[in-house]
Amino acid sequence: MLWADMACMLPLVIWQCLPWLAGVSPILFRPPSAVFRYLVTSPWAHDVWATFVPAMVQTVPLAVGGMIVGLVLGFLLAVAVWSCKRAEPQVMQGIEHAPHRLYAHYRDGAWP
Length: 112
What we know:
This protein is mainly alpha-helical. The chain is 81% helix and 0% strand. The protein is built from four helices and no strands. It has helices at residues 2-22, 32-41, 45-83, 87-107. Helix 2 packs across helix 3. The longest helix has 39 residues, at 45-83. It is extended and about 65 Å long. The chain starts with a helix and ends in a 5-residue tail after the last helix. The relative contact order is 0.04.
C-alpha cells in the first residue's frame, strides 16, 4: 500500500517542485496546488466547471474513438506484417534504420 501511495504522490511532488526548480513563472507552468485552487476553492470555480464539463463531454468521446481506431489499425497492421513472412524482415529493417535516415537528411541539410 505504501508503494502505491508513493507512486501516486511522486508525480505530484515533482510537478509541484518543477516550476520552482526550472525557474519558470507559475503563470506559465501551474503547479498542482494552483490547479486545485482554481478548480475547487476559487470564487469562480463554479463558472470554470460550467465551461469545462460541456467541453469535456464534447471532446472525450472523440478522443476515445480516435484511440480505439488507432489501436485497431495498429493491431491490423501488426497482424498483416506478421502474417506476411517475406515482408516482415524488410519492414523491421526499415523501422530499425528510419531514425538514422532521418538524421542523415537533417545533417546533410536536405530536411525542409
